Amino acid sequence: MAGLVPFNQRRSNLTLRPRGFDDFTNMLDDFFSDSWMPGRSLMRDTFKLDVEEAEDHYKIEADLPGIKKEEVSLDMNEGRLTISIKREEKTDEEKKNYVHQERRVCSMQRTIYLGDAGTEDIKARLEDGVLNIVVPKVKKTELSKKIEIE
After folding, report:
1. Strands (DSSP E) along the chain, which ranges?
2. Are 126 and 76 in contact (CB under 8 A)?
């Protein structure tokens, strides 16, 4: 059973692995670690998304606390609904004696496939940090049919 535990890259003094894979190897190490709570969470880097299906529409609810309407972009392309967020935080202070100043830019994106979704009459509303989207379904024509020979 000990053979299933991967070599922990973080605790290694060897630097033989190629650069650029640190986050990936650390994610694997966190997954196989003994702690019940990993050091990094994939959900922390995105937003929660719930999709509910009704008979004639889909209802999508995304938690976007602190996000403004101008920072959200919605696109529907061939049944794929994409919710994109681009946020830039900066302070415009007139002080010239900075010892340290930082700016923060973040972007997140989620795409869900809704096979029978229509592109007309999609409604979206951002209220109290929750984005609600209602996507109507369209009736698909049957793609196969038995043909009788005369």
Report:
1. 49-53, 57-63, 72-77, 80-89, 104-113, 123-127, 130-136
2. no
Q: Give the type of residue at 126.
A: L
- Cα 131 from Cα 128, distance rounded (Å): 8
> From first to last of its 150 residues, what are the pLDDT tens digits of the chain?
444 545 444 444 444 555 555 555 566 555 555 554 444 444 455 789 999 999 999 999 999 988 899 999 999 998 899 999 998 877 666 666 777 767 778 888 999 999 888 888 999 999 999 999 999 998 876 667 788 898
pTM, 2 dp: 0.59
Sign of CA dihedral 69, 72, 75, 81: negative
47-91+111-136 belongs to which CATH class? mainly beta
Written as six digits, the tokens of 66 are 């602190």
Phi, psi of 20 (to 5 degrees): 100, -10
Domain ranges of the chain: 2-42, 47-91+111-136
- Specify the amino acid at residue 5: V
Q: How far out from the chain centre does Cα 49 lie?
A: 8
